[in-house]
Each structure stands twice: as C-alpha cells, then as structure tokens.
Design a protein that fits this description.
The chain is an alpha/beta fold. Helix content is 33%, strand content 17%. The chain is globular. It starts with 15 loop residues before the first helix and ends with a strand. The structure holds N-carbamoyl-L-aspartate. N-carbamoyl-L-aspartate binds next to helix 2 and helix 7.
Length: 407
C-alpha cells in the first residue's frame, strides 16, 4: 500500500498511478455522499489544519472531508497571529509539537518551500494547502478530477491557463499535472506574469506541448482578447494565423480549439507594486462575449476567489464549472485523507507503480536566489539543490524549485 504515511507537498510527490488512485476513490466517495451514506473510515483519527494565510475553500473542504470520514478536526486559522510564531517560534518547532496532537497535518504558509521544510520535521503525513507562490497540489487533484469528470479524460485536452501565472501557485502544480497526463497547454498571461522558468523547465522535461501568449490592453471590455505570441513559446506555427485572419480570426481559432479555460486572479498580495498590477489585471477577463466565441462544450474553471477577471454574468452558463469544481474539493480530499491514513487500500500493485526519479540532493554553499524561499528566512534550514545540468551549472532549489545558475 503505497500512499500510507505519505506527504503531499508538490504534485510530483505522487506518481500518475497514485494520482489516479485518489481520483478513482474520490468518485466512490462522491457517490457515497450522494446516497447519504455514513463513512466512518477515519474514526479515531485527528486532522490538524494550520493556516498562516487566508483560506475559504482549502481549509474548510479539508475539515468537511475529515468530518465526513468520521474523524475529528482541530482547526488553527490565522496562525500568523494566533500561534507562537507571533512570538518567534520556528516552523520546525511548531510542527514537532503538532505531530504529537494529530494523525495528519494540513498546512498553508506564505513562504515558498515552507511546507517541504515542515514535512521534514513531521513524523505524521503533512499535506500542503499551498506554500507561497510555489505549489498547491491538492487544488490540482481537484482540478484534474473536474476535467476528468466533466470531459471524460485529461489526455490530449487543450487547456488554456490565463492570468497571473507567475505568482499563482495553483497553475504551477496544475501545469505539471496536465503535462504528465498528456494535455496540451496554452498560457495567456500579461507581460512579467508568465510561468516561472522552473515550471517551464519541468514542462519541457515532460515534453509538454506548450504555447504562450501575452494578453494585452483592455480590449477585453469588448469581449475579445488581444494576444501576442510570447518570445518564449515552444510552438511558433500559430503566429502565422495572426497575420492572415487578423486578431479576431485568430482568437476565434484559438477559442475553438480550447477544451478548458482556466482563469486565475492577479496575486496582489505577492506583488511589490500595485501599479503594475492594475494594468495587468485589465489585460485578461472572461465575460459573456468571450464565452460566445468559446466552444459549446468548453469548461470555464477558476480556483477562486475571483476578482475582476471572471464576470458574474458567466455564472449562469452551463460551461461555468468553478463552483462545481470547488465542490469536488470535498470528495477529493476525503479520498486523499483516507489513502494517506491507510483507511482504504489504493489497489496500486507494485508492478504498475512508476517511481518518479528524484535527482540527488546536494548541500552546497549557494543561497537560493528566491527571496521568498523558506531557506532565506528560517535560519536552521539548510539550502539543498538538485543539479539540472552541468555546463553551465544549473541547480534547482530542493524547497522552492527556483533555478540557480552557478559560476
Ligand atoms: C487559491 C490559492 O490559495 O492559491 N485558492 C484556493 O485554494 N482555491 C487561489 C488564489 O488565492 O488565487
């Protein structure tokens, strides 16, 4: 039984078979819930949620999930002010105490890599509810579940990721998950809000079909986006279309090919200057007009909360999947908790289990260049890197995944 006792910090901590085991069990959980069945799979087990950042869906759906499994919950919100970190306690010490109180911990924290550091100090499974701008793996589980449930499969689906792809952690985990399940990805982001290099590097390793566009100006008010192909795009073929059919023709062509449009808000809390943010936020939006040009069977997804990028008029459309998506968070997290606590056998045979090769870690004198990396704040955390390639020497931070060039 492979998932018992496991941490989930990055979506890459689970193999495709393990992710599928969670999604399959989520289907069973969902039908059990619909039939009003009582599930006492986790009776006597305790979930501790500790959140150092605001949350509506992640914390409450984890807690609802544990209640529905018959377990108990201790809920610690606003930990940045209500826990002993306010007195200077470290993440490591906090976790060393909480592991004595709980069978499983869910933690959200504003620093990249913080949940990985926490997991290293925990003897009980630690699940990330989001670490800074880095990853949000359980959101990805429910996003993949949504696509699979509503579109039948993930393989070969064409998915657009729109918005603040740099600071949005949900899209980092999701892009990697989509690539691993064979989806094609189109990124639409304002300049300076594109996918970070480390995510792009991971997608390349999975041979993902990736096209990137810049969204420009406030043309969205009239229901169309103006897109420019980004320099970084791995596919150049479509640029031709922009020349022949004009912007309008190109947008229609693009929308006609998209199975899923995944929107995200600008992560204002992670921006240094609000100014850049306002201009960028105006550059992408989904409204009724844009919806009119999208496919009849397209799915409009959003991790929520929304700000201006998702018009309320979209809510009435059957393609608007975001509230259903948030609802799936309960059966998916029930499945995850049950598997990690060993309450259900995932049925993954050793033969089919594909191990994800983890590059060797090396401790070196280099500091992580990401100022939001946990290793730059928690003084006892020793930076560790995995070598991406030798010449020039490129390292990947073990905690936050940022790439660091050496020498
Ligand atoms: C997201 C998050 O916290 O990263 N919310 C969520 O968990 N559904 C998205 C966001 O805050 O924009």
């Amino acid at each position: 039984v492979t998932l018992v006792g496991r941490d989930l910090i990055s979506i890459n901590d689970f193999s495709n078979e393990e992710i599928e085991a969670v999604l399959n069990l989520a289907d069973e959980m969902s039908s059990a819930l619909e039939k009003g069945k009582r599930l006492d799979l986790c009776q006597g087990k305790e979930l501790y949620t500790i959140f150092y950042e605001p949350s509506t869906r992640t914390r409450s759906s984890f807690e609802t999930a544990m209640h529905r499994l018959g377990g108990t919950v201790v809920s610690h919100a606003e930990a940045q002010v209500t826990s002993a970190v306010a007195k200077g306690e470290s993440i490591a010490d906090t976790i060393r105490v909480l592991e004595r109180y709980a069978d499983i911990i869910v933690m959200r924290h504003p620093l990249d890599g913080s949940t990985r550091l926490a997991a290293e100090h925990s003897s009980v499974p630690l699940i990330s509810g989001g670490d800074g701008a880095h990853e949000h793996p359980t959101q990805t589980l429910l996003d993949l579940y949504t696509i699979r449930k509503e579109k039948g499969t993930i393989k070969s689906k064409s998915v657009a990721l729109c918005g603040d792809l740099r600071h949005g952690r949900t899209v980092h985990s999701l892009a990697i998950g989509l690539a691993r399940f064979g989806a094609e990805i189109t990124c639409i982001a304002p300049l300076d809000f594109e996918l970070p290099d480390h995510v792009r590097d991971t997608l390349k390793a999975y041979k993902c079909k990736l096209t990137e566009y810049e969204s420009l100006e406030d043309i969205v008010a009239e229901g169309s986006l103006v897109l420019h192909q980004a320099e970084t795009s791995s596919r150049r073929g479509d640029a031709r279309l922009m020349g022949t059919g004009g912007q309008e023709g190109f947008i229609s062509f693009l929308l006609d090919n998209l199975d899923v449009l995944y929107f995200t808000r600008l992560q204002r809390e992670r921006l240094a200057s609000g100014e850049i943010g306002n201009a960028a936020a105006e550059s992408y939006r989904i409204n009724r007009q844009l919806l009119k040009k999208s496919r009849d069977d397209a799915l409009i997804m959003h991790p929520l909360p929304r700000t201006g990028e998702l018009a309320y008029e979209v809510d009435q459309d059957k393609r608007a999947a975001y509230f259903r998506q948030a609802g799936y968070g309960v059966p998916v997290r029930m499945a995850l908790i049950a598997l990690v606590l060993g309450a259900v056998d995932p049925g993954i045979s050793e033969g089919t289990k594909k191990k994800i090769a983890k590059p060797a870690k090396e401790v070196c004198s280099v500091r992580c260049v990401n100022r939001c990396c946990v290793t730059n704040t928690e003084h006892y955390a020793i930076a560790k890197f995995c070598q991406v390639h030798g010449k020039p020497k490129l390292l990947r931070c073990y905690y936050c995944d940022w790439l660091v060039q050496v020498g």
